[in-house]
């Protein structure tokens, strides 16, 4: 339950739907979109709402103003770490997709300006990332006496390799969009101001695909990363057998034969 007794300076997370796209927006531009405690609660609620809505086929994570996020407002949430408390409500879908309830629907992120600490980790938890060419990245936790604990130590290593990851995790140095692209942390770099429209276009393209096939693809790819390739390979035949019996698979064949766009229903 979100607390409605709030200080407007604490910022907010807003949501809206555009067709089958669920848009989640970080909205605290006066504080460089730094996360207050209530914003963490609202982000978990937003991801849970997206996951629960049967009409949603893809999410889009973005931010108001010039920056994606300066990270956590440590003065407001440092007690979470001291108490061993999770940043996000434990019963909600985890926005960084690591613990408890995990997201099954695809997510595209549009990042710009400053993208620090948990901003990077939220970005890395998305499935596809579009970055503005002026984006500034930094995993600053070591400079604050703590460590990244929302996925950076896993996902940057997995995508960039151990040495490349530690180069930035251990120094807290900034790096730019070109480096993020080279390291595999983002998938596309566009001119500033174009990141949102490009991310929306990709989300719309994903949303036209068969939902069951998209969910199965996401699940198998994540299994390969977190459990190992052998576990992902072991389930391939069974998953494909299940998918081929769906109405969507039959529609995929019909649309190919009839040379028309497929109309998938998720059944």
In short:
With 267 residues, the chain is α/β, with parallel strands linked by helices. The chain has helices spanning 37-52, 74-82, 118-125, 152-160, 162-169, 177-182, 195-207, 211-226, 229-234, 236-244, 247-258, and strands at residues 12-18, 21-27, 58-63, 107-111, 114-116, 128-132, 136-138, 174-176, 188-190.
User: How would you sum up the major sheet?
Assistant: 6 strands, mixed
* Poorly predicted segments: none
Q: Mind telling me the C-alpha Rg?
A: 19 Å
Order of helices and strands: EEHEHEEHEEHHEHEHHHHH
| Shape label | globular
Strand content: 15-25%
Please give the CATH architecture of the largest domain: Alpha-Beta Complex
Summed up, the helix count is 11
Name of the CATH first level of the largest domain:
Alpha Beta
What topology, given as strand order, has the largest sheet?
1-2-3-4-6-9
Alpha carbon gap, first and last residue: 32 Å
Q: What's the average pLDDT?
A: 93
CATH topology of the largest domain: 2-enoyl-CoA Hydratase, Chain A, domain 1
In CATH, the homologous superfamily of the largest domain goes by the name 2-enoyl-CoA Hydratase, Chain A, domain 1
Structural class determined from secondary elements: alpha/beta
Tally of DSSP β-strands: 9
Helix fraction, binned, reads 40-55%
The total domain count is: 2
Structural commentary:
The chain starts with 11 loop residues before the first strand and ends in a 9-residue tail after the last helix. The strands form two sheets. It has a six-stranded mixed sheet, with helices on both faces. The protein has a three-stranded mixed sheet with strand order 5-7-8. The protein has 267 residues and is α/β, with parallel strands linked by helices. The chain has helices at 37-52, 74-82, 118-125, 152-160, 162-169, 177-182, 195-207, 211-226, 229-234, 236-244, 247-258, and strands at 12-18, 21-27, 58-63, 107-111, 114-116, 128-132, 136-138, 174-176, 188-190. The longest helix is centred in the N-terminal third of the chain and has 16 residues, at 37-52. The chain has two domains: 8-207, 2-enoyl-CoA Hydratase, Chain A, domain 1, CATH 3.90.226.10; 211-258, Lyase 2-enoyl-coa Hydratase, Chain  A, domain 2. It contains eleven helices and nine strands.
